[in-house]
């Protein structure tokens, strides 16, 4: 039975950044007719069997419009409700309240005053992609001007202690497809990196990785807590990427949970991962 699938991008990157190239033939092998389309292109998304957010990296300045579009697409993966929750990093506070080991996070809404950590720290907008708007500050440094600029743009700001392990070991990204662990890859430090030619995200140094057991255990806890908050089953998530760093005590901490449009590291893992993704798409349609 032939089905149609659309991988969703943006005008600046109409066919993504290349990471999903292996996904197209895998989907084709499982009976899908596959195409790319920018989310705001006017394509006929409503008639597609599966519409997958893959490179919608221009949504942040237009989040309300983007969420309205998500609500209009019947077969969107991940769902519009998941996207609404996940595109505001305030979800980190919810996961903290649920007992998940998260990088300490404080939210500062426009008009509120901030207390900056005594160690190096990061200030970033609660709505953003590709580390845009994120800035690192030294212990004791005044970040008020950056905070004010985020507030002036209407953003709630997140303040987090900088995890120095990122400088030496970077981040670990654990990828789940259909709620089941698939693969992992390592990410170098992004703050201070150069912007990609598209202007949508910072360039990253990526490499294959084998996650240690404590990182996998944390990722499992993260997915269980997130799906409990959302009131869904893990299997209802077509994809999830759990970004993990090491705290000062060496224990793993959640940095971000990417459920909207993350790169999934298909170029950094075994070729069969693309087929696992395609199989997970079929699972969503049963």
What does this structure look like?
The structure is a single chain. The protein is an alpha+beta fold and 286 residues long. It has three domains: 3-78, Class I glutamine amidotransferase (GATase) domain (Rossmann fold), CATH 3.40.50.880; 91-100 and 165-284, 2-Layer Sandwich (D-amino Acid Aminotransferase, Chain A, domain 1), CATH 3.30.470; 106-161, Dna Ligase, domain 1 (2-Layer Sandwich), CATH 3.30.1490. It is built from eight helices and 13 strands. It has helices at residues 23-29, 63-72, 80-86, 91-97, 144-152, 165-169, 213-230, 272-284; strands spanning 3-9, 32-38, 50-53, 76-77, 106-108, 121-125, 135-137, 157-161, 171-177, 180-187, 206-209, 239-246, 252-258. Strands 11-10-9-12-13 form a five-stranded antiparallel β-sheet. A four-stranded parallel β-sheet has the order 2-1-3-4, covered by helices on one side. Strands 5-8-6-7 form a four-stranded antiparallel β-sheet, with helices on one face. A hairpin with a 2-residue loop joins strand 9 and strand 10 (180-187). Helix 1 (23-29) packs across helix 8. The longest helix is centred in the C-terminal third of the chain and has 18 residues, at 213-230.
Morphology: globular
CATH architecture of the largest domain: 2-Layer Sandwich
Q: How would you name the CATH homologous superfamily of the largest domain?
A: ATP-grasp fold, B domain
Strand content: 15-25%
Q: By helix and strand content, what is the structural category?
A: alpha+beta
Gyration radius from CA atoms, angstroms: 18 Å
Q: What is the level 1 CATH name of the largest domain?
A: Alpha Beta
User: How much helicity do the residues have?
Assistant: 25-40%
Strand element count = 13
At CATH level 3, the topology of the largest domain is D-amino Acid Aminotransferase, Chain A, domain 1
Number of domains: 3
**Sequence of strands across the biggest β-sheet:** 11-10-9-12-13
Order of helices and strands: EHEEHEHHEEEHEHEEEHEEH
Uncertain segments: none
The average pLDDT score comes to: 93
- Alpha-carbon distance between the termini? 13 Å
Largest sheet at a glance? 5 strands, antiparallel
Tally of alpha and pi helices: 8
């Amino acid at each position: 039975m032939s089905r149609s699938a659309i991988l969703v991008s943006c005008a600046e990157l109409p066919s993504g950044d290349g990471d999903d190239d292996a996904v197209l033939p895998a989907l084709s092998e499982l009976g899908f007719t596959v195409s790319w389309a920018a989310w705001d292109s006017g394509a006929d998304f409503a008639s597609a069997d599966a519409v997958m957010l893959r490179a919608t990296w221009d949504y942040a300045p237009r989040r309300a419009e983007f969420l309205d579009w998500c609500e209009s697409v019947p077969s969107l993966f991940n769902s519009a409700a998941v996207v609404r929750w996940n595109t505001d990093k305030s979800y980190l506070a919810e996961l903290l309240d649920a007992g998940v080991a998260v990088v300490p996070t404080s939210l500062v809404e426009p008009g509120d005053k901030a207390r900056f950590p005594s160690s190096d720290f990061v200030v970033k907008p609660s709505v953003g992609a590709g580390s845009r708007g994120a800035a690192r500050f030294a212990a004791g440094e005044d970040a008020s001007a950056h905070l004010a600029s985020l507030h002036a743009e209407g953003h709630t700001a997140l303040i987090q202690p900088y995890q120095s392990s990122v400088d030496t070991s970077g981040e670990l990204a654990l990828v789940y497809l259909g709620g089941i662990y698939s693969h992992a890859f390592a990410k170098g430090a992004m703050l201070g990196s150069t912007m990609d030619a598209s202007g949508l995200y910072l360039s990253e140094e990526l490499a294959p990785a084998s996650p240690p057991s404590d990182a996998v255990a944390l990722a499992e806890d993260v997915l269980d807590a997130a799906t409990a908050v959302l009131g869904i089953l893990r299997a209802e998530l077509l994809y999830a990427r759990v970004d993990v760093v090491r705290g000062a005590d060496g224990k793993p901490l959640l940095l971000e949970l990417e459920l909207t449009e993350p790169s999934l590291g298909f170029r950094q893992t075994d070729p069969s991962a693309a087929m696992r993704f395609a199989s997970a798409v079929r699972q969503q349609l049963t």
